[in-house]
């Protein structure tokens, strides 16, 4: 969600290592970027809540996103300002940033 808002991958300027894992576990979250639709920002922050019981369920996300996509054409507040920047093939990132699934055993 943050990538849609910012136009870049999250933590693209940091090594994806045990220090980043610890920072995220200690509460590090990406901040809301200027130009993010307010309703989307609220949902993103809710999804990033440290307490899993406060995060929306998959069915709640499905319903919310379905309603939001329907409204996107009618309301300028639902549009992303930074989305045109998003080009995953050419995004610069830290040489130790990892954006695919892998075991964390070596990191922990």
UniProtKB/TrEMBL annotation:
<protein>
    <recommendedName>
        <fullName>Serine-threonine/tyrosine-protein kinase catalytic domain-containing protein</fullName>
    </recommendedName>
</protein>
<dbReference type="GO" id="GO:0004672">
    <property type="term" value="F:protein kinase activity"/>
</dbReference>
<dbReference type="Pfam" id="PF07714">
    <property type="entry name" value="PK_Tyr_Ser-Thr"/>
</dbReference>
<feature type="domain" description="Serine-threonine/tyrosine-protein kinase catalytic">
    <location>
        <begin position="3"/>
        <end position="63"/>
    </location>
</feature>
<dbReference type="InterPro" id="IPR011009">
    <property type="entry name" value="Kinase-like_dom_sf"/>
</dbReference>
<dbReference type="InterPro" id="IPR001245">
    <property type="entry name" value="Ser-Thr/Tyr_kinase_cat_dom"/>
</dbReference>
